[in-house]
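User: I need a structural model of B3 DNA binding domain-containing protein from Dioscorea alata for a docking pre-check later this week. Nothing fancy, just the predicted structure tokens so I can convert them on my end. Input:
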Amino acid sequence: MKERCKPCKEFEEHFYWNHFKLEGMSFIKVMDFSFSQGMLIPEKFVKNVKRKLPEIMSLRSPNGNLWSVKLEKVPGSLMVKDGWKEFVNEHYVVENDVLVFKYDGNSCFDVLIFDQSGCEKEASYFVRRSNPLEEHEMEKEFNKTGTLDVQKNGTNAKRRNTENEPGSSKIKHDVKIVTKRRQISKEEEARALQLAEAYETLNPSFITVMQPSHVSQPYFMTVPYHFVSLHMNRRKRTVILRIPKKKKEWHVKFHCSRSWGFRGQQWQSFVFDNNIEEGDACVFELISAKSEFLKFDVHIFRAVAQVTSLSKINVAVKPEI
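Assistant: Understood. Predicted structure tokens for B3 DNA binding domain-containing protein:
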């Protein structure tokens, strides 16, 4: 076939990096003999990404778990170092495996792991422990407060003895949020993100596209680590979420559970009261950091313009013995 001309190549590169949506940007790495010592991010990716990559990012496992890694500057690019060795060890990555990194446009890479035959590695879906970087952050939080509420092996666990608590074996009830909205398309989700990115704020802000874990169990929404480091002092606290032109405020728990984010009953109420669903893009604008509580205005850009009210049902949950 005839080779493409140089102007064509330049146009294709320009169009890809400047007009395609950020969450679609990805790169592939074949693990060489020294892969466990660090991973070099392609220079072209670092050069062309619109938002500067933060020093600490998350790698999202195929099973949805988040692993924190640190990026180290090298000539012309960035190297994934601290936390990387633990990630590849726990996910059974070996030489010549192929990893696909899909950038979410914020501070996280979704990672898919394939073996030499091109088949996805099943074992990568059954990793449950968090990496030492996350455990170190949680341990520091425990040293500050003396208590720590963490997710461990997929369950909520507190550092206290619950064996003799009265009623611990009784059946409990949990609330499940049910949607009546139709299935959305990738194009609608991309459009919501595009609108959120075009929205200009006067104050520090970050964008999150709602994932299933944000709007259903376990009702936990990760806040980008670089934003936490710059504006939230990396400590447990209560933050106030508001919707512009609405009087109601939601006092939401913000603390560490594998990573920093919003969780708890008030976060669930915020999702329900404002009919926030998977695929909606939200801009969290920090409007006040002077008082005891940080305050955010939340601007919602919906994947489907017509809002469908959410409903709740009670689900019986029998605790493990």
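Before docking, keep this in mind: Confidence is low (pLDDT under 50) at residues 15-23, 132-169.
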